[in-house]
Amino acid sequence: MSRMTAGGAIFPRLKALGVDYVFANSGTDFPPIIEGLAEAAANGEDLPCAVVIPHEHAAMGMAHGYYLISGRPQAVMMHTNVGLANGAIGAINAACENIPVLMMSGRTPVTEAGRFGARTVPIGWGQEMRDQTALVREASKWDYELRYPEQISGLLDRAHAIANSTPKGPVYLSLPREVLCEDVEASSLSDPATIRPSLGAGDPSAIAEAVALLAGAEHPLIISQRGVGSDAVFEAFGAWVERHGLPVASWWATHLSLPTDHPCHIGADPGTALAKADVVLVINSLAPWWPDRHKLSEGAKVINIGPDPVFDRFPVRMFRSDVTIQGETALILPALMQAVDGLPVNARASARRASLAEGSARRLSDERAAALADTAKGITKAQVSHALGEALQGECFSVFSELGAQLGPLACRERLNWFQEPHSGGLGWSFPAALGAQLADPDRICVATLGDGSYMFANPTVCHQIAEALDLPILIVILNNAEWGAVRQSVSQLYPEGHAARANNMPLTSLSPVPDFTQTAKASRAWTQEVTDPDEVAGAIEDALRVVLEERRLALLNIRVLPL
Protein backbone atom coordinates (compact mmCIF):
# COMPACT_ATOMS: atom_id res chain seq x y z
CA MET A 1 0.00 0.00 0.00
CA SER A 2 1.63 3.25 -1.13
CA ARG A 3 -0.94 5.54 0.49
CA MET A 4 -3.60 5.25 3.18
CA THR A 5 -5.64 7.49 5.43
CA ALA A 6 -3.95 9.00 8.47
CA GLY A 7 -6.44 7.06 10.57
CA GLY A 8 -5.37 3.83 8.92
CA ALA A 9 -1.67 4.68 9.44
CA ILE A 10 -1.95 4.69 13.24
CA PHE A 11 -1.97 0.92 13.73
CA PRO A 12 0.98 0.01 11.48
CA ARG A 13 3.08 2.70 13.12
CA LEU A 14 2.14 1.46 16.61
CA LYS A 15 3.19 -2.03 15.53
CA ALA A 16 6.59 -0.73 14.51
CA LEU A 17 6.90 0.87 17.95
CA GLY A 18 6.32 -2.47 19.68
CA VAL A 19 2.68 -2.03 20.74
CA ASP A 20 0.86 -5.37 21.03
CA TYR A 21 -2.67 -4.20 21.80
CA VAL A 22 -4.82 -1.16 21.24
CA PHE A 23 -7.62 -1.10 23.82
CA ALA A 24 -10.37 0.85 22.11
CA ASN A 25 -13.90 2.08 22.66
CA SER A 26 -14.95 3.40 19.28
CA GLY A 27 -17.29 6.22 18.35
CA THR A 28 -18.33 8.42 15.46
CA ASP A 29 -14.76 9.80 15.28
CA PHE A 30 -13.42 6.34 14.33
CA PRO A 31 -14.63 5.71 10.71
CA PRO A 32 -11.23 6.40 9.07
CA ILE A 33 -9.50 4.24 11.70
CA ILE A 34 -11.96 1.38 11.25
CA GLU A 35 -11.75 1.60 7.47
CA GLY A 36 -7.96 1.50 7.74
CA LEU A 37 -8.12 -1.61 9.93
CA ALA A 38 -10.42 -3.36 7.48
CA GLU A 39 -8.18 -2.41 4.54
CA ALA A 40 -5.07 -3.66 6.38
CA ALA A 41 -6.80 -6.95 7.22
CA ALA A 42 -7.79 -7.41 3.58
CA ASN A 43 -4.15 -6.94 2.60
CA GLY A 44 -2.78 -9.27 5.30
CA GLU A 45 -0.94 -6.52 7.21
CA ASP A 46 0.55 -7.35 10.64
CA LEU A 47 -0.98 -4.92 13.13
CA PRO A 48 -1.43 -4.63 16.90
CA CYS A 49 -4.51 -6.46 18.09
CA ALA A 50 -7.46 -4.08 18.22
CA VAL A 51 -9.59 -5.01 21.24
CA VAL A 52 -13.10 -3.67 21.80
CA ILE A 53 -13.35 -2.46 25.40
CA PRO A 54 -16.86 -1.21 26.26
CA HIS A 55 -15.64 1.45 28.74
CA GLU A 56 -12.49 3.58 28.71
CA HIS A 57 -11.82 3.14 32.44
CA ALA A 58 -11.44 -0.59 31.84
CA ALA A 59 -9.24 0.08 28.79
CA MET A 60 -6.84 2.22 30.85
CA GLY A 61 -6.74 -0.36 33.65
CA MET A 62 -5.93 -3.14 31.20
CA ALA A 63 -3.08 -1.14 29.65
CA HIS A 64 -1.78 -0.52 33.18
CA GLY A 65 -1.87 -4.20 34.13
CA TYR A 66 -0.39 -5.33 30.82
CA TYR A 67 2.63 -3.07 31.37
CA LEU A 68 3.17 -4.26 34.96
CA ILE A 69 3.65 -7.83 33.73
CA SER A 70 5.22 -7.34 30.29
CA GLY A 71 7.16 -4.08 30.69
CA ARG A 72 5.81 -2.97 27.28
CA PRO A 73 3.55 0.09 27.00
CA GLN A 74 0.24 -0.26 25.17
CA ALA A 75 -2.19 2.12 23.49
CA VAL A 76 -5.71 3.18 24.44
CA MET A 77 -8.11 4.82 21.99
CA MET A 78 -11.09 6.70 23.44
CA HIS A 79 -14.18 8.37 22.02
CA THR A 80 -13.77 12.17 21.84
CA ASN A 81 -14.15 14.17 25.07
CA VAL A 82 -16.68 11.89 26.76
CA GLY A 83 -14.50 8.83 26.34
CA LEU A 84 -11.46 10.78 27.47
CA ALA A 85 -13.37 11.79 30.59
CA ASN A 86 -14.13 8.11 31.24
CA GLY A 87 -10.43 7.33 30.94
CA ALA A 88 -9.22 10.24 33.06
CA ILE A 89 -9.15 8.24 36.31
CA GLY A 90 -6.99 5.62 34.63
CA ALA A 91 -4.68 8.37 33.38
CA ILE A 92 -4.32 9.70 36.93
CA ASN A 93 -3.53 6.19 38.20
CA ALA A 94 -0.95 5.63 35.46
CA ALA A 95 0.71 9.00 36.05
CA CYS A 96 0.97 8.37 39.79
CA GLU A 97 2.69 5.02 39.19
CA ASN A 98 4.88 6.09 36.22
CA ILE A 99 3.11 3.72 33.84
CA PRO A 100 3.65 4.60 30.15
CA VAL A 101 0.42 4.53 28.12
CA LEU A 102 -0.20 5.98 24.66
CA MET A 103 -3.60 7.64 25.06
CA MET A 104 -5.51 8.86 22.03
CA SER A 105 -9.01 10.13 21.51
CA GLY A 106 -10.86 11.54 18.56
CA ARG A 107 -11.79 15.18 18.40
CA THR A 108 -15.18 16.21 17.12
CA PRO A 109 -14.94 17.59 13.56
CA VAL A 110 -14.14 21.27 13.45
CA THR A 111 -15.96 21.85 10.15
CA GLU A 112 -19.72 21.80 9.77
CA ALA A 113 -19.81 21.07 6.03
CA GLY A 114 -17.82 21.11 2.84
CA ARG A 115 -14.92 18.91 3.95
CA PHE A 116 -14.67 15.11 4.01
CA GLY A 117 -15.11 14.03 7.65
CA ALA A 118 -17.14 17.11 8.65
CA ARG A 119 -19.92 16.94 11.24
CA THR A 120 -22.83 14.65 10.38
CA VAL A 121 -24.70 14.08 13.65
CA PRO A 122 -25.71 16.38 16.57
CA ILE A 123 -22.97 15.11 18.88
CA GLY A 124 -20.48 16.74 16.49
CA TRP A 125 -21.67 20.00 18.00
CA GLY A 126 -22.40 18.76 21.51
CA GLN A 127 -19.00 17.17 22.13
CA GLU A 128 -16.84 20.07 21.04
CA MET A 129 -14.62 21.61 23.73
CA ARG A 130 -12.28 24.58 23.70
CA ASP A 131 -9.60 22.53 25.46
CA GLN A 132 -10.38 18.82 25.33
CA THR A 133 -6.87 17.90 26.46
CA ALA A 134 -7.47 19.68 29.78
CA LEU A 135 -9.30 16.53 30.90
CA VAL A 136 -5.96 14.67 31.19
CA ARG A 137 -3.29 17.37 30.91
CA GLU A 138 -2.14 17.19 34.54
CA ALA A 139 -1.78 13.43 34.22
CA SER A 140 0.07 13.54 30.88
CA LYS A 141 3.79 13.99 30.31
CA TRP A 142 3.10 15.31 26.81
CA ASP A 143 0.03 16.21 24.80
CA TYR A 144 -0.68 17.45 21.29
CA GLU A 145 -3.42 17.67 18.70
CA LEU A 146 -2.74 16.24 15.24
CA ARG A 147 -2.79 19.15 12.75
CA TYR A 148 -1.73 17.55 9.46
CA PRO A 149 -1.94 13.93 8.28
CA GLU A 150 1.78 13.68 7.47
CA GLN A 151 2.55 14.30 11.17
CA ILE A 152 1.04 11.04 12.36
CA SER A 153 4.14 8.83 12.20
CA GLY A 154 6.50 11.37 13.76
CA LEU A 155 4.09 12.31 16.51
CA LEU A 156 3.54 8.67 17.51
CA ASP A 157 7.32 8.21 17.62
CA ARG A 158 7.66 11.26 19.85
CA ALA A 159 4.79 10.23 22.10
CA HIS A 160 6.23 6.73 22.52
CA ALA A 161 9.72 8.05 23.33
CA ILE A 162 8.46 10.55 25.90
CA ALA A 163 6.18 8.00 27.57
CA ASN A 164 9.13 5.62 27.98
CA SER A 165 11.69 8.19 29.15
CA THR A 166 12.55 8.72 32.83
CA PRO A 167 10.23 9.33 34.60
CA LYS A 168 7.82 7.24 32.55
CA GLY A 169 4.15 8.07 32.26
CA PRO A 170 1.09 8.48 30.02
CA VAL A 171 0.98 10.75 26.97
CA TYR A 172 -2.00 12.00 24.99
CA LEU A 173 -2.66 12.71 21.31
CA SER A 174 -5.92 14.27 20.11
CA LEU A 175 -7.11 13.13 16.66
CA PRO A 176 -9.47 15.39 14.68
CA ARG A 177 -11.66 13.40 12.29
CA GLU A 178 -11.06 15.51 9.19
CA VAL A 179 -7.29 15.05 9.51
CA LEU A 180 -7.66 11.31 10.00
CA CYS A 181 -9.59 11.13 6.74
CA GLU A 182 -6.73 12.61 4.69
CA ASP A 183 -4.15 10.46 2.89
CA VAL A 184 -0.52 9.93 3.91
CA GLU A 185 2.49 8.15 2.40
CA ALA A 186 2.53 4.59 3.78
CA SER A 187 5.89 3.23 2.67
CA SER A 188 7.82 4.16 5.84
CA LEU A 189 5.25 3.18 8.47
CA SER A 190 7.11 -0.02 9.39
CA ASP A 191 10.50 1.68 9.73
CA PRO A 192 12.26 1.67 13.13
CA ALA A 193 11.41 4.42 15.60
CA THR A 194 13.03 7.76 14.82
CA ILE A 195 13.31 8.79 18.50
CA ARG A 196 14.64 6.59 21.30
CA PRO A 197 13.62 7.02 24.96
CA SER A 198 16.04 8.43 27.52
CA LEU A 199 16.60 6.41 30.72
CA GLY A 200 18.25 8.06 33.71
CA ALA A 201 20.86 6.06 35.63
CA GLY A 202 21.66 8.50 38.44
CA ASP A 203 24.36 11.08 39.12
CA PRO A 204 27.61 9.20 39.96
CA SER A 205 28.68 11.82 42.52
CA ALA A 206 25.31 11.57 44.30
CA ILE A 207 25.55 7.78 44.26
CA ALA A 208 29.03 8.02 45.82
CA GLU A 209 27.64 10.30 48.54
CA ALA A 210 24.83 7.84 49.26
CA VAL A 211 27.31 4.94 49.41
CA ALA A 212 29.45 6.76 51.99
CA LEU A 213 26.42 7.43 54.18
CA LEU A 214 25.19 3.83 54.01
CA ALA A 215 28.63 2.35 54.64
CA GLY A 216 29.07 4.40 57.81
CA ALA A 217 25.56 4.04 59.18
CA GLU A 218 25.07 2.48 62.61
CA HIS A 219 21.30 2.20 62.31
CA PRO A 220 20.38 2.22 58.60
CA LEU A 221 16.84 1.78 57.30
CA ILE A 222 15.46 1.19 53.81
CA ILE A 223 11.88 2.09 52.91
CA SER A 224 10.75 0.79 49.51
CA GLN A 225 7.28 1.34 48.14
CA ARG A 226 7.26 0.76 44.38
CA GLY A 227 9.60 -2.14 43.89
CA VAL A 228 13.18 -2.33 42.67
CA GLY A 229 12.61 -2.50 38.93
CA SER A 230 13.50 -5.94 37.57
CA ASP A 231 13.79 -9.63 38.45
CA ALA A 232 17.60 -9.49 38.46
CA VAL A 233 17.68 -6.48 40.79
CA PHE A 234 15.02 -8.06 43.02
CA GLU A 235 17.24 -11.11 43.56
CA ALA A 236 20.40 -9.04 44.01
CA PHE A 237 18.68 -6.61 46.40
CA GLY A 238 17.50 -9.44 48.66
CA ALA A 239 21.02 -10.88 48.89
CA TRP A 240 22.57 -7.42 49.39
CA VAL A 241 20.40 -6.31 52.31
CA GLU A 242 21.00 -9.65 54.03
CA ARG A 243 24.74 -9.42 53.48
CA HIS A 244 24.88 -5.98 55.11
CA GLY A 245 22.12 -6.47 57.68
CA LEU A 246 19.89 -3.70 56.30
CA PRO A 247 16.26 -3.57 57.51
CA VAL A 248 13.62 -2.99 54.81
CA ALA A 249 10.12 -1.62 55.47
CA SER A 250 7.30 -1.90 52.92
CA TRP A 251 5.09 1.02 54.00
CA TRP A 252 1.99 1.09 51.74
CA ALA A 253 3.89 -0.96 49.14
CA THR A 254 2.30 -0.97 45.69
CA HIS A 255 5.01 -3.33 44.36
CA LEU A 256 7.09 -6.01 46.04
CA SER A 257 10.73 -5.16 46.80
CA LEU A 258 11.57 -8.15 48.99
CA PRO A 259 9.96 -11.52 49.79
CA THR A 260 7.55 -11.12 52.69
CA ASP A 261 9.46 -13.80 54.64
CA HIS A 262 12.91 -12.33 53.96
CA PRO A 263 14.94 -12.14 57.19
CA CYS A 264 15.57 -8.39 56.68
CA HIS A 265 11.92 -7.50 56.01
CA ILE A 266 10.54 -5.68 59.05
CA GLY A 267 6.99 -5.44 57.69
CA ALA A 268 4.98 -2.42 56.65
CA ASP A 269 5.35 -0.01 59.58
CA PRO A 270 8.74 1.78 59.62
CA GLY A 271 8.00 3.68 62.84
CA THR A 272 10.26 1.95 65.37
CA ALA A 273 13.21 1.65 63.00
CA LEU A 274 12.77 5.20 61.70
CA ALA A 275 12.91 6.66 65.21
CA LYS A 276 16.49 5.45 65.70
CA ALA A 277 17.75 5.41 62.09
CA ASP A 278 20.77 7.58 61.32
CA VAL A 279 20.59 6.94 57.54
CA VAL A 280 17.37 6.25 55.63
CA LEU A 281 17.40 5.04 52.03
CA VAL A 282 14.01 5.78 50.42
CA ILE A 283 13.46 3.79 47.23
CA ASN A 284 10.81 5.23 44.88
CA SER A 285 8.33 6.10 47.63
CA LEU A 286 5.75 8.83 47.24
CA ALA A 287 4.96 8.93 50.97
CA PRO A 288 7.62 6.85 52.77
CA TRP A 289 6.18 7.41 56.23
CA TRP A 290 3.30 9.08 58.07
CA PRO A 291 4.64 12.49 59.17
CA ASP A 292 2.27 12.90 62.12
CA ARG A 293 2.98 9.43 63.46
CA HIS A 294 6.54 8.59 62.34
CA LYS A 295 9.43 10.84 63.33
CA LEU A 296 12.97 11.00 61.99
CA SER A 297 15.70 10.87 64.60
CA GLU A 298 17.64 14.09 65.08
CA GLY A 299 20.48 14.39 62.61
CA ALA A 300 19.31 11.53 60.40
CA LYS A 301 20.29 11.70 56.73
CA VAL A 302 17.76 10.72 54.06
CA ILE A 303 18.61 9.44 50.58
CA ASN A 304 15.83 9.47 47.96
CA ILE A 305 16.25 7.46 44.75
CA GLY A 306 13.87 6.71 41.89
CA PRO A 307 12.61 7.96 38.54
CA ASP A 308 11.12 11.05 40.20
CA PRO A 309 12.63 11.18 43.70
CA VAL A 310 11.21 14.60 44.59
CA PHE A 311 7.84 13.81 42.92
CA ASP A 312 7.54 17.20 41.26
CA ARG A 313 4.03 16.44 39.93
CA PHE A 314 2.70 16.95 43.45
CA PRO A 315 2.52 20.52 44.84
CA VAL A 316 3.07 19.56 48.50
CA ARG A 317 5.60 16.90 49.48
CA MET A 318 8.03 17.97 52.20
CA PHE A 319 9.86 14.72 53.00
CA ARG A 320 13.52 15.33 53.73
CA SER A 321 16.08 14.49 51.02
CA ASP A 322 19.77 15.10 51.82
CA VAL A 323 20.88 13.09 48.78
CA THR A 324 18.58 12.94 45.75
CA ILE A 325 19.30 10.56 42.88
CA GLN A 326 17.04 10.57 39.82
CA GLY A 327 16.96 7.63 37.44
CA GLU A 328 15.48 4.21 36.86
CA THR A 329 15.55 2.22 40.09
CA ALA A 330 16.77 -0.84 38.20
CA LEU A 331 19.82 1.16 37.04
CA ILE A 332 20.62 3.11 40.23
CA LEU A 333 20.40 0.25 42.71
CA PRO A 334 22.96 -2.06 41.05
CA ALA A 335 25.50 0.78 40.97
CA LEU A 336 24.84 1.65 44.59
CA MET A 337 24.94 -1.98 45.76
CA GLN A 338 28.15 -2.72 43.88
CA ALA A 339 29.86 0.33 45.38
CA VAL A 340 28.81 -0.58 48.93
CA ASP A 341 30.01 -4.16 48.38
CA GLY A 342 33.40 -2.78 47.38
CA LEU A 343 33.92 -1.26 50.84
CA PRO A 344 34.75 -3.08 54.08
CA VAL A 345 31.63 -4.61 55.62
CA ASN A 346 30.26 -2.52 58.49
CA ALA A 347 31.25 -4.04 61.82
CA ARG A 348 27.63 -3.90 62.97
CA ALA A 349 26.30 -5.84 59.97
CA SER A 350 26.50 -9.29 61.57
CA ALA A 351 24.69 -8.23 64.75
CA ARG A 352 22.04 -6.38 62.73
CA ARG A 353 21.52 -9.41 60.52
CA ALA A 354 20.96 -11.73 63.49
CA SER A 355 18.59 -9.29 65.18
CA LEU A 356 16.61 -8.74 61.98
CA ALA A 357 16.24 -12.48 61.34
CA GLU A 358 14.91 -13.00 64.86
CA GLY A 359 12.47 -10.11 64.51
CA SER A 360 11.30 -11.30 61.09
CA ALA A 361 10.56 -14.79 62.40
CA ARG A 362 8.62 -13.33 65.31
CA ARG A 363 6.63 -11.02 63.00
CA LEU A 364 5.73 -13.86 60.64
CA SER A 365 4.58 -15.97 63.58
CA ASP A 366 2.44 -13.10 64.89
CA GLU A 367 0.90 -12.47 61.45
CA ARG A 368 0.04 -16.13 61.04
CA ALA A 369 -1.46 -16.28 64.53
CA ALA A 370 -3.57 -13.18 63.81
CA ALA A 371 -4.79 -14.64 60.52
CA LEU A 372 -5.78 -17.90 62.21
CA ALA A 373 -7.23 -16.24 65.32
CA ASP A 374 -10.72 -16.89 66.60
CA THR A 375 -13.24 -16.16 63.83
CA ALA A 376 -16.34 -16.71 65.93
CA LYS A 377 -17.65 -13.29 64.93
CA GLY A 378 -17.04 -13.82 61.21
CA ILE A 379 -14.49 -13.80 58.41
CA THR A 380 -11.56 -11.35 58.60
CA LYS A 381 -9.42 -9.86 55.83
CA ALA A 382 -6.35 -11.41 57.44
CA GLN A 383 -7.92 -14.86 57.32
CA VAL A 384 -8.79 -14.53 53.62
CA SER A 385 -5.34 -13.12 52.84
CA HIS A 386 -3.58 -16.02 54.56
CA ALA A 387 -5.78 -18.61 52.88
CA LEU A 388 -5.25 -17.06 49.46
CA GLY A 389 -1.49 -16.98 49.99
CA GLU A 390 -1.47 -20.63 51.05
CA ALA A 391 -3.47 -21.67 47.98
CA LEU A 392 -1.19 -19.77 45.60
CA GLN A 393 2.16 -20.99 46.90
CA GLY A 394 4.14 -22.84 44.27
CA GLU A 395 2.16 -21.20 41.47
CA CYS A 396 3.15 -18.40 39.09
CA PHE A 397 0.76 -15.69 40.27
CA SER A 398 0.07 -11.97 40.58
CA VAL A 399 -2.33 -10.48 43.10
CA PHE A 400 -3.83 -7.07 42.36
CA SER A 401 -5.15 -5.83 45.68
CA GLU A 402 -7.43 -2.83 45.92
CA LEU A 403 -8.47 -2.38 49.55
CA GLY A 404 -8.64 -6.17 49.50
CA ALA A 405 -6.17 -8.82 50.62
CA GLN A 406 -3.31 -7.73 52.86
CA LEU A 407 0.40 -8.11 52.18
CA GLY A 408 1.97 -9.94 55.10
CA PRO A 409 -0.77 -12.43 55.88
CA LEU A 410 -0.65 -13.10 52.11
CA ALA A 411 2.85 -14.49 51.56
CA CYS A 412 4.62 -13.25 48.41
CA ARG A 413 8.12 -14.22 47.32
CA GLU A 414 8.45 -13.24 43.65
CA ARG A 415 8.69 -9.69 42.27
CA LEU A 416 5.44 -9.91 40.29
CA ASN A 417 3.42 -11.55 43.07
CA TRP A 418 1.99 -8.32 44.49
CA PHE A 419 0.52 -5.05 43.20
CA GLN A 420 -1.56 -2.69 45.31
CA GLU A 421 -3.84 0.10 44.15
CA PRO A 422 -2.03 3.29 43.06
CA HIS A 423 -1.78 5.97 45.72
CA SER A 424 -3.83 8.26 43.47
CA GLY A 425 -6.87 6.35 44.74
CA GLY A 426 -8.72 6.04 41.43
CA LEU A 427 -10.98 3.13 42.38
CA GLY A 428 -11.98 0.31 40.06
CA TRP A 429 -8.34 -0.37 39.11
CA SER A 430 -7.64 -3.95 40.17
CA PHE A 431 -10.24 -5.82 38.11
CA PRO A 432 -9.20 -4.43 34.68
CA ALA A 433 -5.51 -4.43 35.70
CA ALA A 434 -5.74 -8.16 36.38
CA LEU A 435 -7.41 -8.64 32.98
CA GLY A 436 -4.55 -6.80 31.28
CA ALA A 437 -1.99 -8.85 33.22
CA GLN A 438 -3.69 -12.09 32.15
CA LEU A 439 -3.59 -10.94 28.54
CA ALA A 440 0.15 -10.27 28.90
CA ASP A 441 0.88 -13.69 30.46
CA PRO A 442 -1.84 -16.31 29.82
CA ASP A 443 -0.05 -18.92 31.97
CA ARG A 444 0.01 -16.71 35.08
CA ILE A 445 -2.71 -16.91 37.75
CA CYS A 446 -4.03 -13.35 38.02
CA VAL A 447 -6.12 -12.45 41.06
CA ALA A 448 -8.05 -9.24 41.65
CA THR A 449 -8.94 -8.89 45.32
CA LEU A 450 -10.97 -5.81 46.14
CA GLY A 451 -13.65 -4.34 48.35
CA ASP A 452 -17.29 -4.23 47.39
CA GLY A 453 -17.10 -0.49 46.66
CA SER A 454 -14.06 -0.95 44.42
CA TYR A 455 -15.83 -3.77 42.57
CA MET A 456 -18.73 -1.43 41.75
CA PHE A 457 -16.31 1.30 40.61
CA ALA A 458 -14.72 -1.15 38.16
CA ASN A 459 -17.81 -1.22 35.91
CA PRO A 460 -18.10 -4.96 36.65
CA THR A 461 -20.57 -5.73 33.86
CA VAL A 462 -18.04 -4.32 31.38
CA CYS A 463 -15.11 -6.20 32.93
CA HIS A 464 -16.97 -9.51 33.01
CA GLN A 465 -17.90 -9.06 29.36
CA ILE A 466 -14.24 -8.47 28.51
CA ALA A 467 -13.13 -11.54 30.47
CA GLU A 468 -15.58 -13.75 28.58
CA ALA A 469 -14.91 -12.19 25.18
CA LEU A 470 -11.13 -12.53 25.48
CA ASP A 471 -11.07 -15.80 27.46
CA LEU A 472 -9.29 -14.28 30.45
CA PRO A 473 -9.74 -16.72 33.38
CA ILE A 474 -8.85 -14.51 36.33
CA LEU A 475 -9.94 -14.97 39.95
CA ILE A 476 -12.00 -12.21 41.57
CA VAL A 477 -12.10 -12.15 45.38
CA ILE A 478 -14.50 -9.52 46.76
CA LEU A 479 -13.93 -8.77 50.44
CA ASN A 480 -17.40 -7.48 51.07
CA ASN A 481 -18.01 -5.48 54.26
CA ALA A 482 -21.03 -3.57 52.90
CA GLU A 483 -19.41 -0.19 53.51
CA TRP A 484 -16.68 2.25 52.60
CA GLY A 485 -14.30 0.69 55.10
CA ALA A 486 -11.41 3.03 54.30
CA VAL A 487 -13.66 6.04 54.93
CA ARG A 488 -14.82 4.63 58.25
CA GLN A 489 -11.22 3.98 59.29
CA SER A 490 -10.15 7.51 58.31
CA VAL A 491 -12.98 9.08 60.36
CA SER A 492 -12.13 6.93 63.37
CA GLN A 493 -8.46 7.92 63.14
CA LEU A 494 -9.22 11.65 63.09
CA TYR A 495 -12.07 11.55 65.61
CA PRO A 496 -11.55 8.41 67.76
CA GLU A 497 -13.93 9.68 70.46
CA GLY A 498 -16.24 11.54 68.12
CA HIS A 499 -19.93 11.09 67.46
CA ALA A 500 -19.35 9.29 64.15
CA ALA A 501 -17.02 6.70 65.70
CA ARG A 502 -19.57 5.99 68.43
CA ALA A 503 -22.59 5.92 66.12
CA ASN A 504 -24.24 2.61 65.30
CA ASN A 505 -24.35 3.69 61.66
CA MET A 506 -21.58 6.08 60.61
CA PRO A 507 -22.92 8.63 58.09
CA LEU A 508 -21.89 8.38 54.43
CA THR A 509 -20.16 5.00 54.75
CA SER A 510 -22.85 2.33 54.35
CA LEU A 511 -23.27 0.48 51.04
CA SER A 512 -26.33 -1.47 52.15
CA PRO A 513 -28.37 -3.02 50.71
CA VAL A 514 -25.50 -4.88 49.09
CA PRO A 515 -26.19 -6.15 45.54
CA ASP A 516 -25.76 -9.83 44.82
CA PHE A 517 -22.48 -9.54 42.97
CA THR A 518 -22.54 -13.20 41.99
CA GLN A 519 -25.47 -12.43 39.68
CA THR A 520 -23.44 -9.76 37.87
CA ALA A 521 -20.72 -12.32 37.19
CA LYS A 522 -23.18 -15.06 36.22
CA ALA A 523 -24.57 -12.81 33.50
CA SER A 524 -21.27 -13.46 31.69
CA ARG A 525 -21.21 -17.19 32.48
CA ALA A 526 -18.64 -16.92 35.31
CA TRP A 527 -18.33 -19.44 38.15
CA THR A 528 -19.35 -17.86 41.46
CA GLN A 529 -19.71 -18.63 45.14
CA GLU A 530 -20.92 -16.64 48.14
CA VAL A 531 -18.92 -17.27 51.33
CA THR A 532 -20.17 -16.33 54.79
CA ASP A 533 -18.72 -19.10 56.98
CA PRO A 534 -15.08 -18.80 58.14
CA ASP A 535 -14.71 -22.58 57.85
CA GLU A 536 -15.50 -22.42 54.11
CA VAL A 537 -12.93 -19.80 53.09
CA ALA A 538 -9.95 -22.04 52.28
CA GLY A 539 -12.07 -24.60 50.43
CA ALA A 540 -13.85 -21.93 48.40
CA ILE A 541 -10.54 -20.43 47.27
CA GLU A 542 -9.26 -23.86 46.24
CA ASP A 543 -12.47 -24.55 44.29
CA ALA A 544 -12.24 -21.19 42.54
CA LEU A 545 -8.61 -21.74 41.55
CA ARG A 546 -9.53 -25.17 40.18
CA VAL A 547 -12.09 -23.52 37.89
CA VAL A 548 -9.53 -20.94 36.76
CA LEU A 549 -6.85 -23.54 36.04
CA GLU A 550 -8.89 -26.44 34.69
CA GLU A 551 -11.96 -24.84 33.11
CA ARG A 552 -10.12 -21.67 32.08
CA ARG A 553 -12.93 -19.31 32.99
CA LEU A 554 -13.38 -16.45 35.41
CA ALA A 555 -14.24 -17.35 39.00
CA LEU A 556 -15.69 -14.92 41.52
CA LEU A 557 -15.86 -15.27 45.30
CA ASN A 558 -18.08 -12.85 47.20
CA ILE A 559 -16.75 -13.17 50.75
CA ARG A 560 -18.63 -11.36 53.50
CA VAL A 561 -15.98 -10.04 55.88
CA LEU A 562 -16.19 -8.18 59.18
CA PRO A 563 -15.91 -4.36 59.10
CA LEU A 564 -12.44 -2.98 59.82
From TrEMBL:
Pfam families reported for this sequence: TPP_enzyme_C (PF02775), TPP_enzyme_M (PF00205), TPP_enzyme_N (PF02776)
Residue ranges occupied by any Thiamine pyrophosphate enzyme TPP-binding domain in the UniProt entry: 411-558
Annotated SUPFAM superfamilies: DHS-like NAD/FAD-binding domain, Thiamin diphosphate-binding fold (THDP-binding)
GO MF, one annotated term: thiamine pyrophosphate binding
UniProt KW keywords: Thiamine pyrophosphate
Domain Thiamine pyrophosphate enzyme N-terminal TPP-binding: 4-133
Start and end residues of each Thiamine pyrophosphate enzyme central domain: 207-333
Taxonomy, superkingdom: Bacteria
Gene Ontology cellular component annotations, sorted alphabetically: acetolactate synthase complex
CDD domains (UniProt xref): TPP_BFDC (cd02002), TPP_PYR_POX_like (cd07035)
Similarity comment text for this entry: Belongs to the TPP enzyme family.
PANTHER family for this protein: ACETOLACTATE SYNTHASE CATALYTIC SUBUNIT, MITOCHONDRIAL (PTHR18968:SF13), THIAMINE PYROPHOSPHATE ENZYMES (PTHR18968)
Protein name from the UniProt record: Acetolactate synthase-1/2/3 large subunit
Protein species of origin: Primorskyibacter sedentarius
